[in-house]
Design goal:
about 325 residues, alpha/beta, TIM Barrel, three-stranded antiparallel beta sheet, 13 strands, about 15% strand
Length: about 325
Amino acid sequence: MKVVDVHNHLYPNEYLEHLEGRTDSPIKVERTGPTHWIIYYKGTPLGHMSKPGHFEPEPRIKDIDEYGIDVQILTLPAPGVEHLPASDGVEWARRVNDRLAEICRNYKGRFYAGASLPYQDIDAALKELERAKKELDVRGIMMFSNIAGKPIYAPELMPIYEMAEAYELPIFVHPAPPVTTDAVREMHLPLPLFAFIMDTSMAVCGLIFHGVLEKFPRLKIIHAHLGGVFPYMVGRIDDCYKSYEKEFNYSIPEPPSVYYKRQVYVDAISFHLPAMRCALDYLGPERMVIGTDYAHPIGGPERVTGFVKALGLPEADLEKILWGNAAQLYKLDGAR
């Protein structure tokens, strides 16, 4: 049975080298070894890269063959190009997308790409998305849980969602440098522990509460890390919407949970069966896909398939999660 991984990351070396040389940003990049980098945000570690497969396709293929992964949707992880000045962001979005497209061409059927966009310049982002779709054959879009601190439901981003819906490109919502960084740093806790999960949960809730999914009913979202906290707080989310909709001037006609079940998918990054069963019970096998977080150290590419199989699902449902749902979302019918 095939396996497609929708949540993994590849950093072009030249992008990290560019970030390493910058001094005008809260993001700092430090090389600590031949294939080891640390990214800091406001002085707090945001991510570690230590495997050659973080940067190059050949060692990555060796790894994913060992893990039983047939196909990956490649994306650039945080920090995205939106943290750069506008002109640099436009240039590096293009360069990153070109590099990922080159890998996809050279290893056809093993890799597909999600587009990076310079969200700080919406006109340029739309042009890059059109180019990436028509010339590079991207199959999705990478969007972070905030755009350099700006909510992803900000009005100026609506043309992005409109184009994504028109092109039938799913949007993968991945943690950004979190808006709660200062609070978490004061608590002396790692950002990936709570801050990442809360940031994506607030972002996807915002897309629903502020009517983005209502406005674009064919838009598809993939919510990283088993949907953050949404599947486990869904009752409270619906109750809060009902209690505060007038005060906050919300105006969606259905409860938030309806939009989530209809338009949102979650990846199976949890490694805790009770949590995975909770998400599965809420969403069903039709809304779950495989993610590994390769090659970050807290990911589990060697474990994720086993955890999904441990759910004890019928083979047809298992195939949906391992392959079928992603194949439909990203149009992978010709994949290996």
